[in-house]
Write a structure and sequence with these properties.
With 120 residues, this protein is an alpha+beta fold. The protein is built from three helices and six strands. The two termini are 17 Å apart.
């Protein structure tokens, strides 16, 4: 088994403007995801909006500083995640494809394997 992170990305302004029906469709797809994934879900979470983010990076003096907001200037932001334990990439992609964000015109779902540092 391998672990994968599923990053749910989209336009934060569009997420804020969703109707109750649109939100219900997304919530329903996440419930179905949980039913299909079962014990394969290692961790998950929905992130608060990007305006609540703090980025820690190297300052001019070489010491870390905290800066309000995400560092990258992008229209799409990460809105949530899952860490799943699956037999392979194809199984992880198939599971992630059931999320509603994979079918919307302003969002997407990224599936990426985690590095296993335990085998060293």
């Amino acid at each position: 088994m391998s672990q994968f992170i599923i990053l749910i990305q989209g336009d934060a302004d569009r997420w804020k403007a969703m109707s109750a029906d649109e939100r219900a469709e997304i919530d329903s797809a996440h419930r179905e995801f949980w039913q299909k994934a079962g014990d394969a879900v290692v961790a998950s979470g929905e992130l608060q909006g990007p305006e609540t983010a703090v980025t820690v990076r190297r300052g001019d003096d070489g010491e870390p500083i905290a800066v309000d907001g995400p560092f990258t200037e992008a229209k799409e932001v990460v809105g949530g995640f899952y860490v799943i334990d699956m037999p392979d990439r194809d199984a992880a992609v198939a599971l992630a494809s059931g999320l509603a964000e994979a079918r919307q015109d302003h969002s997407g779902v990224q599936v990426q394997p985690l590095v296993d540092h335990s085998a060293g």
